[in-house]
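Session log. Operator J.P. requested a structure for one protein chain; no other inputs attached. Running the standard single-chain path with C-alpha cell output.
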Amino acid sequence: MADEPRLPQKRYFRQRAHVNVFNDMKFDYPERPSTQDWAPYYPAYFRANGAEADGEGEDGKRPLSEGTVVEAKRGPGCEAPEAPEAPNALKEEPNNLARVEFADIGCGYGGLLVALSPLYPNTLMVGMEIRTKLVRYLQKRIEALRAFQHGLLDQRSSRSVEWVDVRSKLDLEISALHTSSEAVDEPDNGETTRLVPGHYENIASMRINCQKYLPNFFAKSQLSKIFVLFADPHFKRRKHKARIVTQTLLAEYAYVLKEGGIFYMITDVRDLYEWNVKHLDAFPLFERMTQEEVDKDPAVPCVVHSTEEGRKVARNKGDKFLACYRRIADPFEV
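Structure written below.
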C-alpha cells in the first residue's frame, strides 16, 4: 500500500562522527525555556501555538488529563508488579503538566529513546544531536513508528492486536545484562506489529549544540535523567576541552537536573571513562550510585544495550564502562 509507513534506512543518513562544537553553526533555540514551542515534537501532548483549547497551562502547554493522554498511553506490563525485586522507578510520578524530563545528549540514531519510550510512556524524552542527517533520520523513524502504532490502534475494532509486555521484555534485558550481551544484540527498530505503552508519542529529536544552548531549553531542576552514551572521546590533548564532560558543562547539567536526578555515562574508551569519573567525582553536586542501585535501575539495560554504538561494541566483544551519578542537594541553596 502506498500509504503504509516505512522506516527510514540508515545508509541514506550516514554522516561523519566528528563535528567541531565550537564552530558558529546556525541553530534554532529559544531565548529562555518558557518560550520553547514543543508542539511540533510532541503533538499528542502539546497544542500548536494559536490553537484554542480549554484548560490551557502555563507556557501554552496542554495539561495531561485522565481519560485522554494518560489512559490512552498505558498497556500491559507498564506498571511495576508487586515482586520485591521489581524497581519502583517504572511507576511514574503523576505530572499535571507535560514537560520534557529525559534528555539524551548526542542521541545518534535514537536507539535509547526507542527503547525507553515504552518503559516510561508518560514521560517526555528528547534526543539532542548536532549532526543534521542523524536528527532527520531519527525524526523520520519516530514518525514512522507512531504511524505504525496508530494503524494498529485503528485495527483493534476488526481484529485482536497484541500488546508488548514491557516488564517481561525488561526482565529479559536485565538477565542479559548480567550474563551475555549476545541475547540482545539483534537490531531493534521499535515495535511495528504490536502495540506499546506510549505509542512513541513521548519521544522526539532536535538538532542542537548542547555544549552551548542546553540552559535555553530546560529550566532549573526540570530534568530527571540525562544520558551521555558513547560520546566522542576527542583523544588529542588539545581537543579535551571539547569533551562532553567538563567542570563547566557539569555545572549546567547540575542546573537542569532536579535533586535526585541521574546522570548516565557509558563509553568503550577507558581513557574517556577515567576522565569522566575524575570530573564527576570532583564535582560537589554529584555522587556516584552504588552497584546495587545501578542494578535496580530499569533504564540501565537500555543504556548498555540499545544504542547502535553499544551494539557495535558488543559485536566486536569490546568493553563497556558505565557510571551513574545522582544529583544531590546544594548545601548553599536556600
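Operator note: The chain is about 30% helix and 15% strand.
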